[in-house]
Specification:
Blueprint: H1 2-36, H2 40-66, H3 72-166
Amino acid sequence: MESYAHSQVYIFFATVYGGIIIGFIYDIYRIFRYFFKPKRVATFFEDLMFWISVSLVALYVLIFSNWGELRGYIFIGFLLGAFLYNKLLSKIVITILVHIVKAIANAIKYMFSIVIYPFKALMRLLYSPYQKGCKKVKKEYTNLKRKAKLPFRVVSDNIKNTKKIIFKK
């Protein structure tokens, strides 16, 4: 009889630990949603992945603790574990994970800036001659445009002058 009660207590605490793991997975999911802000379709797939992972954790705990048998105290254990995690550890874990994610993001940005730096330096080096060339081309373009209009202006001026001479009273 003592062995039976001992195994029941073991199963209960295993499900409490399973509830704690499920709470941790939920916090990871919340942090992921906070940083990436997914759209509607991506949210559907993220929710699906969350529930699949929660189901796998629950199934793993049930199979390895009591060969998959469902009892009422098992549900109470999962709920108690998730509740305890939410009340005692969730804020601490979220702040730690947010700091870790920010540190990783800053490290990635720093590495990216190191990789992109030679290209930026090359662009800065080439931008000044490019800008000077653009100014020169623009100046030549406006001169050419003005010279291209010259024959039309000469013709239109000649037409005006001939009309004045012909129709002069």
